[in-house]
Design a protein that fits this description.
Helices cover 36% and strands 21% of the residues. It is of the alpha/beta class and 260 residues long. The protein has 2 domains: 167 residues, Rossmann fold (3-Layer(aba) Sandwich); 79 residues, Trehalose-6-phosphate phosphatase related protein, domain 2 (Alpha-Beta Plaits), CATH 3.30.70.1020. Helix 2 links the parallel strand 1 and strand 2. The structure holds magnesium ion (MG). Magnesium ion binds next to loops.
C-alpha cells in the first residue's frame, strides 16, 4: 500500500491512458460546514484543465451533488457522475439519466416539505433539495441535535423508501434520500466501460459511498482512500487529505503529455 503522493504517482506512471475518477467533497476540497462554500480555490480548475489531455487522461467527477452544482463549481471539461451516479453529463453538457429521475423527483417532492418542517428548527442543520434527492447536512450541529435531526429525517422519509425507488444513504455528517438504483460503484463501472478497456481506472474518494467504487474496481485499476487509515476500507492505497490529493494530481499533470 502506498500512502504518499510521490509513491502513488510512481505506481501510476505505467498506464498510458488513465480514467481519473474523483469525488469532490473531502477529496478535491476540504469539507465546509456550508457545502455551498466548498469552492475549488484558484489552483484546482487550471490543474484539472492541465490533466484533461486527450488520449492520456479522462477526468470524471463522481459526487452526490447535483449536476448544476458540480458544473457551477467545475466549469471545465470534466465528465460528471452527479447524484451518486444517477445522472451522467458529458464534457459537452449532454445529460443522460441513468435511472428514472422523474419518478424519483416526484417521490422526493412528497417528503421534502415534511422534512423541511420537522428539521428546520434544529440548530445547525441544513437541508439540500437536489430534485431527485434530498440531503440533510449536520456538520454544523452539536452531536445531540444531530441525532435528533437524523431521527426526524428518517421519520419523514420512511414512507418513501419501501417502494424501492429511493433509499437512505449515510455519509460523513450527511444523511440523504437518494435514487436507490444509483451508487458510485455501478456508475464508475458503467463510465469505465464507455471509455473502453485500454483506459486504466483510478478512483479517489473519502466517504462510505466511495467504498462501493473501491469494491467495484477491486480487480482492475487503482483505488485511493482519502483520510485517516481505516482497516475496513476496500481501497488499495491512501492519501491523508485533499492537500495530498492536489499534490498527486500536480505530479500526474507534470508528466501528462499527448500519447505519441
Ligand atoms: Mg466525499
Amino acid at each position: 500500500m502506498a500512502s504518499t503522493p510521490a509513491g502513488i504517482a510512481r505506481l501510476l506512471a505505467t498506464p498510458d491512458r488513465i480514467a481519473l475518477f474523483l469525488d469532490y467533497d473531502g477529496t478535491l476540497v476540504p469539507f465546509q460546514e456550508d457545502p455551498s462554500r466548498a469552492l475549488p480555490g484558484p489552483g484546482l480548475l487550471p490543474l484539472l484543465d492541465r490533466l484533461a489531455v486527450p488520449g492520456r487522461f479522462e477526468v470524471a467527477i463522481v459526487s452526490g451533488r447535483s449536476a448544476e452544482d458540480l458544473r457551477r463549481l467545475l466549469p471545465g471539461r470534466c465528465h460528471l457522475l452527479a447524484l451518486h451516479g444517477a445522472l451522467y453529463v458529458d464534457p459537452d453538457g449532454r445529460a443522460l439519466d441513468r435511472v428514472d429521475l422523474d419518478a424519483c423527483r416526484a417521490a422526493v417532492r412528497e417528503v421534502a416539505e415534511a422534512c423541511a418542517r420537522l428539521v428546520a428548527s434544529i440548530p445547525g442543520t441544513r437541508m439540500e433539495d437536489k430534485g431527485a434527492a434530498l440531503a440533510l447536512h449536520t456538520r454544523g450541529c452539536e452531536r445531540r441535535d444531530e441525532r435528533r435531526a437524523v431521527r426526524r429525517f428518517l421519520d419523514a422519509s420512511r414512507g418513501a423508501v419501501p417502494g424501492g425507488l429511493l433509499s437512505i444513504l449515510r455519509g460523513s455528517r450527511v444523511i440523504e434520500l437518494k435514487p436507490a438504483r444509483a451508487d458510485k460503484g455501478s456508475a464508475v463501472l458503467w463510465l469505465a466501460k464507455r471509455f473502453g478497456r485500454d483506459w486504466f481506472p483510478v478512483y479517489l474518494g473519502d466517504d462510505r459511498s466511495d467504498e462501493d467504487a473501491f469494491r467495484a474496481l477491486q480487480d482492475r485499476g487503482t483505488t485511493i482512500r482519502v483520510g485517516p487509515a481505516r482497516r475496513t476500507s476496500h481501497a488499495r492505497h491512501r492519501l491523508a487529505d485533499p492537500r495530498a490529493v492536489r499534490e498527486l494530481l500536480e505530479l500526474m499533470a507534470s508528466t501528462a503529455g499527448p500519447v505519441g
